[in-house]
Amino acid sequence: MRRLVALLLLALAGPLAAQGNVPPAPYAYTQLADPAQEAAARELMHTLRCLQCQSQSIADSDAPIAGDMRHQVRARIAAGESPDEVRDWLISRYGDYISYEPQVSASTWPLFVVPAIILVLAVLLLLARVGRRRASGEGG
Amino acid sequence: MIPEIGLAALWLAAALAVLQLLGGVLGARREGMELAAVARPAAVLQALLCTVAFLCLLYVFAVTDLSVKLVADNSHSMKPWIFKVSGAWGNHEGSMLLWITVMAMAGGLIAFVERRLPERTMLATLSAQAFVGLGFYAFLLLSSNPFQRLSPAPPEGNGLNPLLQDIGLAFHPPTLYVGYVGLSVAFSFAVGALLTRSVTPDFARVMRPWVLAAWIFLTLGITAGSYWAYYELGWGGWWFWDPVENASLMPWLAATALLHSVSVLAARDALRTWTIMLGVVAFSMSMIGTFLVRSGILTSVHAFAVDPERGSFILALLVLYIGGALVIFALRAATIAEGERFAVTSREGALVVNNIALSAILGIVLVGTLYPLLTEAFDIRVSVGPPYFNPVSAIFLVPMLLVLMVGPLLRWREDGFARIRWQVIALFAVTLGVLLGVWLVADIHLLPLIGLALAVGVGIASLLPLAGRSLRRTPLATWGMVVAHFGVAVALFGMASDSAFQQERLVAASVGDAVEVGPWQGRLDTVYPVAGPNWTAIQANLHLAYEGGAERRAAPQSRNFWAPVMETSEVALLTRWNGQLYVAVGNQAQDGRWQLRLWWKPFVTFIWYGGVLIALGGALSLVGRVTTDLRRRRRPEDDVDEAYPA
User: How many domains are contained in chain A?
Assistant: First the structure.
């Protein structure tokens, strides 16, 4: 009985699930045959943003666009492109937003300058401690 | 009727907060002592009233009272009972009521039990707590009323996001909120101590258990949230450096730094201003996190700009409270002496490194989270993700963990490396040995490699403080430190191991086909539909064996919810001591084969075991601290040594 109800419900839900069901591109859910190429593609996919989702990489998403992009990445890697070339191509097509790895540019330099400042500050703070300790003698 | 009772209770609680503020301020200024006596009872009563309001909200969700707008928008009569109730905080208004309730309960609790502080400091603390509370009451009552009615009531509700219909998420937000909002107590204590200039070791001992308690809940909340994302999102990721996650990580980083520095203040009367600063920063991070998550700014900066009511309200509160506290800090910090001096090679010295490193990581996470929002306002869209956060935070994390290996072995005030030379040499030799060993046999990336080596080093080092001690006489607080530090090593090991060694297999399989991933082999046996209370699903049944052992069944589902319509992945997890097999089923391809995704994740579970251990360490410390403190209050002359920080 339960099985029957499930089947009935499924039949009803079918049309909903079928909305826009274009079959996914070949490489969306298929790995590359060469393990080294697949590893490179996988690593790259983890650093690319799924444009349709909120804060997920294309390697972590069921969204159709993420599938299409996985296909693009795998196809290009299989064709012999380097991960950086693929990333550059995707950035040229979708903009900087697509890449989770910010490149140093006019609009992103604070992301790199601020940690450097924090690092300098941290070292200075520690050195100040050491210096004060030396100046105040053994008593501390 | 019930919703109106809830609303009335909230307005009354807000009125009591005004009374508490006035009484506290007058008392702290030594005027109007009659009103000052009101501050404590007002805080306690507020906690009760907010609890009543929250219970009212739980009730309307439990019975699916669709005449309440919030219920109609976020619930559905056919949801399982537990998710009806947990749906109460799965939305904006409900979660803000939860926030207020936790805050009122924390305030009520300190008013009820805390009698160790000078009364003036206590009154200043209570007025600070009331002042912060008032802002959030105003926010809730004026722009996010959870009890708003809907007339006519709709025949059915809109339902709850199916991703949130999960037992993990039923308990994750309350846990996290207790941590988040518990830090408000540290904030109020810090402001109270600043206003009355009483930053003393006694003050630190009073503040410490509250910080510890909030931190334990934060740790558990983050751990649970990470595990939820791992099994519910269906792709096996456990940390995404997503702004919502960062919003919970930032208060945790600040609270971790705070509970280490508050121990220095308690034990050695050093780092006074720094501890106060961290107290302010920790809750400020909670508020920034709430702003990020609740204002809608994350979905789109532009949508936020178009409908800014709620966002700008929280933003105004942020500026008021953080700005106000920083102004008080700037005015008063100079009048508070820095406290006792100490040598670089001392327990305090190591803890200063811990504090600087944690603050630096906090700064990086803050910049990496806020910067994309800033540029988006100028129509420049950038993404900051794992390739940025991982290496940049490692710059500080690695030295911090190296110091963590040595710090607990050092004595307070002043120590020399000569005393612990052999232990330190052995620890670094082991760490370096693991680094080289793994590097030789496995081709993995630098960060997981360093992570594995440090995990082993920290794991061994964390146990050394127990060496040569009678385990039964070791204070609970020391056990707490050992367990928590060991937990750090365990979690780090899990993270590094999963990043380095996980194996992925995406296959399209027909019924009867063999599948394999890593050491697991098996086949897809059947695929059939199943139905739940508010969903239907395709269930794949696989049998898999680890290295030719006994077969185990994995039955992942692809679920279709109908209110609201959404497809989710219900993964199957086969857990072994040395890792987890993660199986998800996707759609049926045109040729009739099923999409299967399998991951073998060696030691991935250690991430969450580690998180739980860290929280457990905190709990041991908390129990140890509170019991020693109670004993000391009974017998003041019996001053126990403060040998180990929390």
Answer: 2
Range of the domain at A126: 104-140
Q: Are residues A78 and A123 in the same domain?
A: no
Q: Report, as an integer, the average pLDDT of B288-308.
A: 73
Choice among A25-34, A75-84, B189-198 with the minimum mean pLDDT: A25-34
Rg (CA), chain B: 26
The pLDDT mean for chain B works out to: 89
Q: What is the structure's pLDDT at B615?
A: 97
Question: Which pTM value belongs to this model?
Answer: 0.91
* CATH code where residue A51 lies: 1.10.8.640
Nearest residue in A to B588, CA atom? A23
**Where do the structural domains in chain B lie, given as residue ranges?**
1-162, 505-602
Residues B541, B530: Cα–Cα separation, whole Å: 12
Q: Is A125 in Cβ contact with B364 (below 8 Å)?
A: no
pLDDT of residue B305: 59
- Is B515 an 8 Å CB contact of chain A? no
Question: And the tokens for B178?
Answer: 């207790």
* pLDDT for B162: 78
Are A96 and A111 found together in one domain?
Answer: no
- A13 domain-assigned: no
Interface pTM, i.e. ipTM? 0.81
**Contact residues on chain B for A35, CB-CB shorter than 8 A:** none
Which pLDDT value is given to residue B301? Answer: 63
Residues B456 and B452: their CA atoms lie apart, in Å, by 6
Asked if A56's CB is within 8 angstroms of B233's CB, the reply is: yes
Please list, in sequence order, all residues whose beta carbon lies within 8 angstroms of the beta carbon of residue B330, skipping any fewer than 6 positions away: none
Retrieve residue B407's tokens: 């710090």
| Chain-chain contact of B356 with A125 (C-beta, under 8 angstroms) | yes
Cα B207 to the center of its chain, rounded Å = 19
Tell me, yes or no, whether A130 and A75 share the same domain. no
Both A81 and A29 in one domain: the answer is yes
CB spacing of A126 vs B353 below 8 angstroms: yes
Please list every residue in chain A whose beta carbon sits closer than 8 Å to the beta carbon of residue B392: 115
User: Does the pLDDT at position B67 exceed 60?
Assistant: yes
Indicate if A63 and A90 belong to the same structural domain: yes
**Which residues in chain B touch residue A111, judged by CB atoms under 8 angstroms apart?**
367-368, 371, 382, 384, 388
Q: What is the mean pLDDT of residues B102-120?
A: 90
Say yes or no: A114 and A75 in one domain.
no
Q: What is the side-by-side order of every strand in the sheet holding B594-602?
A: B503-509, B594-602, B579-588, B572-576
Same domain, A70 and A32: yes
